[in-house]
Amino acid sequence: MKIKRLLAIAFAGAFAGVGAATFSGTPAQAADEKTPAVVVEPDAVSVPEGRSGTFTVRLSHQPAGTVRIDMRARGTGIWAAPPVILTFDQNTWATPRPFTMYSGNDADAFDDFIVVTLSAVGYAPDTVTLTQVDDD
Ligand SMILES: [Ca+2]
Ligand SMILES: [Ca+2]
User: Fold this and answer.
1) Range of the structural domain that residue 125 is part of
2) What pLDDT was estimated at residue 33?
3) What is the number of the ligand closest to the CA of 50?
4) Distance between Cα 105 and ligand 1 center (Å)
5) Is residue 29, in this structure, part of any structural domain at all?
6) Tens digit of pLDDT for each residue in 1-23?
7) Are 59 and 38 a contacting pair, CB within 8 Å?
8) Is residue 30 domain-resident?
């Protein structure tokens, strides 16, 4: 599929930089899980044009301190996200945190998509693919 134009995305700078988090390396409550990872669910979200879609983020293992989630996005079309920086700590790491992204109205009839990679220091990254359901 041909990508018609470059991504235009408004992240308000929220995802810039790298988190300086520490991680104990020892699973506290999930000893049967393997590598510590960022867990994003579901893997894919359909977003009607002009509407928003939501996925959740949590950590697989308890951190030693505050962990900041770094988000990077690649794709096509117009997307926006709130200027929110997700962080997890010893108490909140296991609770799925919703994150909503908005699909902007565009003049084309192309189902744009965006792949968001969420990472954190000491954790394997995870991705979610949001696909715009174009209404033109
Ligand atoms: Ca459209
Ligand atoms: Ca479109």
Assistant:
1) 1-13+45-136
2) 59
3) 1
4) 6
5) no
6) 444 444 445 443 333 333 333 33
7) yes
8) no
The CATH number linked to 102 is 2.60.40.10
Within 13 A of 112's CA, how many CA atoms are on the CB side? Answer: 28
Q: Are 39 and 123 in contact (CB under 8 A)?
A: no
- Give the count of domains, the chain: 1
Residue 10 CA, distance from chain mean position: 14
Whether 72 is in a domain gets the answer yes
Give the Å distance between the CA of 83 and the centre of ligand 1.
Answer: 24
- Check if the beta carbon of residue 69 is closer than 8 Å to that of residue 98: no
- Residue 122 CA to residue 119 CA, distance in Å, equals 9
Say yes or no to pLDDT of 123 above 90: yes
Ligand nearest to the CA of 107: 1
